[in-house]
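Complex record, two chains
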Amino acid sequence: MSKAKFGVVVFPGSNCDHDAYNTLKHILMQDTEFLWHKESSIGDRNVIIVPGGFSYGDYLRCGAIARFSPVMKDVIRHASSGGVVIGICNGFQILCESGLLPGALLRNESLKFVCRNVTLNIENKNTIFTSAYNGNGNVKPGKMVVPVAHGDGNYICDNDTLKMLNDNQQVVFRYEDNPNGAMDDIAGIMNKQGNVLGMMPHPERASEGIVGGSDGKYLFESVINSLN
Amino acid sequence: MYSSKIKVTLRKSILDPQGKAVEHSLQSLGFKNIIDTRIGKFVELKIDTKSEEEAQLITDEVCKKLLANQVMEDYEFEVVRVNGK
């Protein structure tokens, strides 16, 4: 029996919460529950997914309002004590706004919403999020193909932060062909401790063949392996 | 009562693609002497307090906490006294 207990946060305006739930519950057969944004505790959940979507209508800035919702207080506590948190797309924006990850996400350089598959180079395979990509599965070696779907995915941070991210191997994924103007082709980063990941592409939307690819599921398998 | 008028803009060092798109559009309309366009947000708050100093402090705090993300944005504001109830 897997020790992973996934909690998928649901904000008003989340729209990838069910994709994440389906991947975890029905494809990977994990103990998974939704966590409504008004809950003050994550309960017994030990892996938190902050999903994609348009929380609070993206009002003010993407993720700016969700960051102050009741459940996020406990998510921040969980992350600060070493618990696993994965922010995908809007979830990545929320983690940056909440200070769990450095930097911010700007409007795409093209000003266009991009929605297509991208190839990511897995820059760091020694993380709890990427260990299952070590030669396993049917992915291109060292790469994963997953969709992006965002208008604000243009990662930015100051030069000192960028140097820190590179020096500590915190850049987990880079775009092979940058779709949004992100600095240094950054698609996903983790915190220094390696327990919080944020990424713009959607692994939960590429976790079974029927949706066009399953490269994404190895990310969740990596996390499950790390807990068992 | 005081009113705070707040402007939030992308930091000068950050490319503003929306501003650039509008600038190109203005230039194509014949406004050749427009050489820079930046787009930002305007927020107006009414603050129920008798002290201008408190209104300033509150405005600064909400800018830092929520209205601006200082990783990518700058803010400025002015506080003026208004007639309230």
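Note: The mean pLDDT of chain B is 94.
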